[in-house]
Amino acid sequence: MVSQLKYDRVLLKLGGEALSGPSGVGIDPREAENVSGRIATILELGVEVAVVIGAGNLWRGRSGIERGMDRTTADQMGMLATVMNAIALQDALDRAGIETRVQTAIEMRALAEPYIRRRAIRHLEKGRVVILGAGTGNPFFTTDTAGALRAMEIDAGILIKATKVDGVYDTDPTENSNAKKFEYLSYIDFLNRRLGVMDSTALSLCMDNDLPILVLDLWAKDSLVNAVKGGSVGTLIHQ
After folding, report:
1. Domain locations in the chain as residue ranges
2. pLDDT tens-digit profile of 140-175?
3. Would you give the distance in Å from CA 21 to the centre of its chain?
4. C-beta of residue 143 within 8 angstroms of C-beta of residue 55
5. What is the chain's mean pLDDT, rounded?
6. Prediction pTM value
7. Strand partners, 238
């Protein structure tokens, strides 16, 4: 089965809103189950899956910063919120019979393993999903950057940014019915266009290390399956 795959190890970057349902706020266990079902479709093909998840459903540091909150404090709260999301997703995967480990960049041994690169890779090799929480462990870095960093550390073949939109457009497709979708973009073109789908630090990190990025709609039928097989799906950002 693995011979059919273009990518046999992937880093899946999810927004926290993937767990929240229509409201965009909080954690809905049913949505966590839906996400685990999507992950299961590629695990069944023999793909090794690591996940980095954001915290936008629980906390947006920008709102605190706008009220005068210290940036480091706001970012630390965000890192903790990603761990809540990671544990919720782990629970959904466990209930689906999928062996899962959560590792965190900030040590909290009562809840999760500390992030250790070699241990994470060993879990992946054993077929376990590894959810990487707490971002990079440092303020001023987004979970996009954490996803790019971890993808390179674990030697993933691609960084898949799963959203609710089927790729990257030149303008917001929800506001402009004539928005143009890109099938391919170079890293430089993406940066020059300031498209905002991924922050520039994460994009530059991928560019410097030649890690391809695929932006796709997590909820589209067979989108992840098509992605790991190298099919035409979403927008591919590469050299």
Report:
1. 2-238
2. 999 999 999 999 999 999 999 999 999 999 988 888
3. 17
4. yes
5. 95
6. 0.94
7. 186
- Residues 6 or more apart whose CB falls under 8 angstroms from that of 235 comprise 167, 168, 181, 182, 183, 184, 185, 214, 215, 216
Q: Which CATH class is domain 2-238?
A: alpha beta
Backbone angles phi, psi at 131, to 5 degrees: -100, 125
Q: Is 173 left (phi over 0), alpha (psi -120 to 50) or beta?
A: alpha
Q: Which amino acid is at 211?
A: L
Give the integer Cα–Cα distance in Å for 101 and 89: 10
Q: Are 9 and 155 in contact (CB under 8 A)?
A: yes
Residue 26 neighbours by CB under 8 Å, 6+ apart: 20, 57, 58
The residue written with tokens 């674990």 in the block is 154
DSSP, collapsed to helix, strand or coil, labels residue 161 as: strand
pLDDT band, residue 76 (cuts 50/70/90): very high
